[in-house]
Design goal:
By secondary structure, the protein is of the alpha/beta class. Helices cover about 50% and strands about 15% of the residues. The protein has one domain: Rossmann fold (3-Layer(aba) Sandwich). Strand 2, helix 2 and strand 3 form a beta-alpha-beta unit.
Amino acid sequence: MNKTAIITGASKGIGKSIAENFAFRGYNVIINYNSSAKEAFELEKLLKSQGLSAFAFKADVSVRAEVDAMVDFCMEKFNAIDVLVNNAGISVSNLFTDITETEWDSVFGTNLKGVFNCTQSVLRYMLPNKKGKIINISSMWGLVGGSCEVHYSAAKAGVIGFTKALAKELGPSNIQVNCIAPGVIQTDMLSDYTDEELEVLRYDTPLMRLGKPHNIAASALFLASDDADFITGHVLSVNGGYVV
């Protein structure tokens, strides 16, 4: 019987790569999106055309009612939720003194409250079954902080603390909670960077190259596998040595 995974923010970038990886490994996949409907349904169509099991579902992860509707839809379709990947996130660069309260709330709403909403919602089904995998996507800036990204760094640091604390709480229920902290990954989030800035980032990465979404997707697939059953509360840094 195929396992089932909900991937948040799965229409583009890292989330899309994770959804593809899971689908090609035989998972039923819920492709969560909020504003990128076109991309989400194109991905659903692509995966289904190859005989894979995937459904796009709109939900703003910062809104609990929408998250609950998505989780209930998943249960209606597949009668199981084996894996949750909390990937949905937004990044805004700004001087700390220029951050507005609205911008702060928006970053925290998606990047941290979204993790809370989705995790608490799936636990309604994981806890009675005494099994499940929760994989949270943080950032290397959650480990060391990034200048001009205080709100993003703080929210991603919160994801790491959330992961470690919840792993301890859910351990007795045989639910593993882990975290991936990506480095500089080639996605739309880099679209505002100049070629010169990207070259500096490459130079500062010991492996002398930027990461690709499939690097994160492969890590998520491992943490979701049976081979990772004895790993919980771990932060896996996938950053090419940028932060060691």
